[in-house]
Amino acid sequence: MRRVALMATIAVATIALIATIALATIALKAPAGPTLEASAGRPKPTTHHITIEAVRFQPQSITVKVGDVVVWANKDPFPHTATSKAAGFDSHPIAPDASWKYTATKRGEFSYVCTLHPTMTATLTVE
Predict the structure, then answer these.
(1) Could you tell me the sign of the dihedral formed by the alpha carbons of 58, 111, 95, 98, in that order?
(2) Less crowded by CB within 10 Å, the N or C end of the chain?
């Protein structure tokens, strides 16, 4: 009887060992997820601000990186737009004391205009 109990204990221990080895093998073959080092290597997007005031964009020229956010804030008492056909963005009218944001997705140098006041022009460069 003791011999049967001993053999059963050995069998259970062997199965447990085999299961542990199998799980370890699966874990080693699984693709690794993102690591802290990998995510730390990518810079966080930066937010850039453009003020619309006195019927002008300030700054009149700005350089950002792909993924950065650009915020236009209207400080004039009437609406404005920030529109670039080449870059593919159009704020539509931005009300007084309101803002509009755009995430840069396309590299290049893009002129933009206020479609309500066509003399208002500026440049957005995306690297």
Answers:
(1) negative
(2) N
Q: What is the pTM of this model?
A: 0.68
Q: Rounded distance, CA 15 to CA 1, Å?
A: 21
How far, CA to CA in Å, does 17 sit from each of 27, 64, 88?
A: 15, 56, 60
Nearest to residue 80, comparing CAs of 71, 91, 70, 88?
91
For domain 44-126, the CATH class is: mainly beta
Give the model confidence (pLDDT) of 84-101 as tens digits.
Answer: 999 999 999 999 999 999
In the numeric block, the tokens 């080449």 are attached to: 86
Res. 108: pLDDT tops 90: yes
The domain segmentation of the chain, as residue ranges, is 2-30, 44-126
Say if CB 72 and CB 79 are below 8 A apart: no
The Cα–Cα gap between 24 and 15 comes to 14
Between CA 62 and CA 69 the distance in angstroms is 12
Distance CA(85)–CA(82), nearest Å, equals 10
pLDDT at residue 60 in the model: 97
Q: Are 74 and 94 in contact (CB under 8 A)?
A: yes
